[in-house]
Amino acid sequence: MTSMDANLTNAHASEGQMFAAAVHSRTPKMLSDVQPRDVVTEPYAHYYRADVVARPLYEELAAGFPSLEMIVNGRADVGSNEAVRMTVKQVLGDRRISALWREFFEYHTSPDYWHDVTRLFAPHFRREFPGLEERIGRAYEDWRVVPRGFAGEAEVRLDCQFVMNTPVTRTSSVKTPHVDLCDKIFSALFYMRDPADSSAGGDLDIYDWRRDPRFVKHRTLNRDVELVKTVPYQANSYVCFVNSAEAVHGVSPRGLTPVPRRYINFIAELPIKAFEPKQLNRLQKFWYASEVDAALGDDRY
Questions:
Q1: Which residue of 17, 60, 236, 258 shows the fewest CB atoms closer than 10 Å?
Q2: Domain extents in the chain
């Protein structure tokens, strides 16, 4: 462990002690009152709720969401409709971020949060990833948790991120249909739409496969999937899901707007791959060349 990692680990521990009482009294716990029956299983395991946080507390959180300038942090190469973010490691060490937000990030990268995740989703993990617990060597409920970016032994590293999709100068989707990286088994989004944002699009689209899964990297061809559900990009709404080869999702195109798309991103990352996306073969890539380019978007570069 480097001295920097040691200092940040110690800082994280002191943050936990400092915020312990506040975490129990003020921090919204996104899954604490959810029951297993609330999880929808088709086309893959997910949960959605609007108005997830009490209005006065949500307004306080929204008012403390960092500015685009703070998140970009001096970068000059940011393009149209690009995702920029601040991770838990950055947030917990940044006193410009409000105590309430740091409490939120502290809790949602903690073992307590992971216990809620497994209380609701462990049966779905077992169905999607048979043999994964044996590969890891522990039951999901017993996995050791460390915030992503910090040192320490862990089976799962949790991240909580401020994310903005930058102002849009050409109509585009920030992410065409895809699954998240295969070392991540759980993802969630907490939308914090700016009241000044009147643009169309930016919704989360949920897809089902028309055929057996096949990918270009982690993206899908439009011909292979069909849109079955849309979660609106709506302030104070939360959606989470098990990430697997079945969990195809994307973001609907946004029109021109100077207002960033704002949300919190939650990630559960493993030290190994939970699944391996089956790729299109070389001949299929040739047959569907234009569709492959459309699916990859900026990833083709």
A1: 17
A2: 3-300
Cα separation, 139 vs 27, whole angstroms: 28
Instruction: Write the burial class of residue 244 (CB in 10 Å: 0-12 exposed, 13-18 middle, 19+ buried).
Output: buried
What is the full per-residue pLDDT of the chain (301 aa) written as tens digits?
Answer: 444 344 444 444 444 444 344 344 689 999 999 999 999 999 999 999 999 999 999 999 999 999 999 999 888 788 899 999 999 999 999 999 999 999 999 999 999 999 999 999 999 999 999 999 999 999 999 999 999 999 999 999 999 999 999 999 999 999 999 999 999 999 999 999 999 999 999 999 999 999 999 999 999 999 999 999 999 999 999 999 999 999 999 999 999 999 999 999 999 999 999 999 999 999 999 899 988 988 887 544 3
Angular region, 228: left φ>0, alpha ψ -120 to 50, beta rest: alpha
Whether 159 and 184 have beta carbons less than 8 Å apart is answered as no
Q: Which fold has domain 3-300?
A: Jelly Rolls (2.60.120)
